[in-house]
From TrEMBL:
InterPro entries: Metallo-B-lactamas, RibonucZ/Hydroxyglut_hydro
Gene3D superfamilies membership: Ribonuclease Z/Hydroxyacylglutathione hydrolase-like
Ranges of residues in domain Metallo-beta-lactamase: 35-128
Protein name in UniProt: Metallo-beta-lactamase domain-containing protein
Pfam families named in the record: Lactamase_B
Domain of life (superkingdom): Eukaryota
């Protein structure tokens, strides 16, 4: 048995701080299994939720089940945004299916100087501008929930990579290993 399966948040969202939920999944790579997390943030005033990252494609079904189970417990909440920390497959691999199942969701991506970084993502949105919001460095406060979750751009590869910071919780979100 994989030790990940014994974690309390294995393949289900567990509250780790008020209105902040984490789910851990297992990603297999080169005969190794390691944990990968996604976060779900509740905005109590509007009943909206923000999902941070979408895992690799092999975890799509497990993520959809975890979201379905979560929203069964919180029927007044709905998924409004998916924030992506970068465009690697282990962060974006389930995006296409999530957009099919959650039709009103908007994806948050960081502006990139290298257009190829966002090409992969934008093609998955079918060119529909209403499905994504590009957050530009210097204009992060245009994001609706900037007072709750601040996008922070970082240098490195890929360009446009960003962390999210919850000032109220003094907590950084990213899916770096």
């Amino acid at each position: 048995m994989n030790s990940l399966t014994t974690l309390p948040d294995f393949q289900k969202f567990t509250e780790i701080l008020p209105n902040i939920y984490r789910a851990t999944f297992s990603q297999n790579y080169a005969k190794l299994s390691y944990p990968i997390n996604v976060f779900l943030i509740h905005i109590p005033t509007t009943r909206d939720c923000i999902l941070l990252d979408t895992l690799d494609p092999t975890n799509t079904n497990q993520l959809l089940i975890a979201l379905s189970d979560h929203f069964f417990l919180y029927p007044d909440f709905n998924l409004k945004y998916i924030g992506l920390t970068n465009n690697n497959y282990d962060h974006t691999g389930s995006i296409t299916k999530l957009l099919e199942d959650y039709k009103d969701v908007k994806v948050l991506i960081g502006e990139s100087k290298n257009i190829k970084n966002n090409d992969y993502l934008l093609k998955n949105f079918g060119g529909k501008e209403d499905k994504y919001q590009i957050i530009k460095q210097g204009n992060e406060d245009e994001f609706e929930y900037y007072n709750i979750l601040k996008p922070i751009f970082t240098l490195g590869n890929p360009s446009g990579k960003k962390f999210y910071f919850s000032e109220k919780r003094s907590l950084f979100y990213s899916t770096f290993y």
